[in-house]
Amino acid sequence: MPKDRAPTRIQKKNRAAILEAALNVFSAHGFRGATVDQIAAEAGLSKPNLLYYFPSKEAIHTALLSGLLDTWLAPLHELDADGDPMEEILSYIRRKLQMSRELPRESRLFANELVQGAPRIHEALSNDLKALVDEKTAILTQWMDEGKIARLHPYHLVFSIWALTQHYADFDVQVRAILGDEDPFDGAEPFIDTLYRKLLTP
User: What is the spatial distance between Cα 81 and Cα 142, in angstroms, rounded to a whole number?
Assistant: First the structure.
């Protein structure tokens, strides 16, 4: 889309529609399985109209991932070194679980990108994400040194939180097939809360 002037209301609406449609298509089919034609049809636009806003499928995918990474990092940013260690960690876990509940398509989009080797966000993972995780694991290590939480490998503690909470979005079909009519999040939060409370108690 031309950048020499501010976008009109219609242009903003169309761009948002394209990104929303692309989120549906990419989360369902992955980057390789998705096509510009599918995204245009989902957005209710012609292919030439879509290409006015984004020159390629990769440009759409990159725009989605750029916004998603900020969203994904936000819960970890909130981990406060001055707070109660147990409650800070459990609150982080609850925020991550809530994201899986409210943003399952975004979670699957992110997971698909990682499975493919993260070609479009590898630099961000190696820089922004790593710097943030290094900062927060230093806080976890300090709490462990002070005897406020049990001593565990801080990085693997973070990885386990990601794996447990994001499972409910990335493997939603499997989880719901097993649980039937039960909302998986009704049981997930108390189970994960109990698990980590016991794990982290010195």
Answer: 9
Question: Can you tell me the mean pLDDT for 130-140?
Answer: 97
pLDDT range class, residue 120, cuts 50, 70, 90: confident
**What is the SS3 string spanning 98-165?**
HHHHHCHHHHHHHHHHHHCCCCCCHHHHHHHHHHHHHHHHHHHHHHHHCCCCCCCCHHHHHHHHHHHH
- Lookup: tokens for 154: 């801080």
pLDDT at 20 over 90: yes
**H or E element that contains 34:** none
All domains in the chain, ordered by first residue: 1-55 (1.10.10.60), 65-200 (1.10.357.10)
B/e letters for 155-185, b = 16+ CB within 10 Å, e = fewer, are eebbebbeebbbbbbbebeebeeeeeeeebe
